[in-house]
Amino acid sequence: MEEDIYSPDLNLPTGVPETSETMSHPPQSHVPNKPPENMQQQQQHSNNGSSALISAATQGDLSTVEKLLEAGGRPLAHGLDALEAASRNGHEDVFMKLLTSSSDELAEFIKGHSNAAQTLLTFATNLKCRPAILMLLERGAGTVSIDFEPTYSWEALSAAMVLDRDSDDMVAFLLAHGVGRDPETGRLHPEVEILNHAAR
C-alpha cells in the first residue's frame, strides 16, 4: 500500500482537497485598494468652488463672493485668477474682499511668490485701490534689491504713470510707500529714480 505524502505546511495528505474546514488559514478575498469614496467628489467640489469664485469675481458679484468665501472658498487656490478677474473688470470691492479674506494665506503666498506679489501690486494699482496697495506693501510687495532689475516694480509704477495722466498721483503714492526701494538701504533703484523724476 502506497504511503500518503504529507504536506509540510498544512500536515495534510497530498491530493486531499482543501476546504475551509481543513485549511489552517482560509484564503482571503482580494479587494483592490480604492480611494476614499468621497475623494473625487471633494476634488470636484473644490474645483467647482474655485471656478464659481472666479466667475463671481469677474462679474463683480460681491454677495456671491462672500457666500463662497463663507463656504470655504480660497481666493488663492488657483493662483491669482480670482484676484486678476476682479482687478481686470474694475471691481474694487470684490478685490478687497478677496484680499482681506485670505490675509494669513496671502502673507505666506507673498513670501514664497515674490513675483506674483508684485503682480498683485499692479492689480491693486490699476484699480487705484490704495487700501489694497498698503495691505500688499505691508506684506512685502513692492521692494526690490538694488542688485536686480526691478521688473515687477516697473510694472506697478508704469501702470501708475498711465493713471497719473488723469491726475491720480499714483506714482507719488507708490514711491512714498517704498515701492522700488531696496529693503536694506531704503534707496530707490536708479531706474526707479528716473521714473520718480519723470512723474514730477
UniProtKB/TrEMBL annotation:
UniProt xrefs under Gene3D superfamilies: Ankyrin repeat-containing domain
Write the protein's name: Uncharacterized protein
Lineage, broadest ranks: Eukaryota, Fungi, Dikarya, Ascomycota, Pezizomycotina
- Stretches of Polar residues bias are at 17-31
Region feature Disordered, mapped onto this chain: 1-49
Domain of life of the source: Eukaryota
